[in-house]
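Budget justification aside, the reviewers requested a transparent look at the raw inputs and outputs of the sequence design task funded under Objective 1. We therefore reproduce one unedited record. The lines immediately below are the structure tokens for a 85-residue chain.
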């Protein structure tokens, strides 16, 4: 087994080192990737929940006032025309 040597005053490892340092580094990288994926999935889930909430509120408003539904249809048509559909 190799030893870990630290040069006087240095803040990095020099020389040969134990394979555990590499494994720890790889593990930290994998953990960072997993956390990024989890955060992205959470943000996607949150955006879907917000959209579902907005749709529910719009549907509730539309049942009480027909103008809400007309405005929503007009907005969809406007967006379709802008996107070239």
């Amino acid at each position: 087994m190799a030893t870990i040597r630290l040069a006087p005053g240095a803040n990095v490892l020099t020389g040969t080192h134990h394979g555990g340092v590499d494994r720890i580094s790889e593990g930290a990288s994998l953990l960072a990737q997993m956390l990024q994926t989890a955060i992205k999935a959470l943000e996607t889930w949150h955006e879907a929940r917000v959209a579902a909430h907005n749709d529910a509120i719009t549907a509730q408003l539309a049942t009480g006032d027909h103008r809400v539904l007309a405005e929503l249809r007009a907005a969809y048509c406007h967006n379709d025309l802008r996107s070239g559909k």
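Residues 67 and 73 are 10 Å apart (CA to CA). The chain has a mean pLDDT of 80. Computational costs for records of this kind are itemized in the attached budget.
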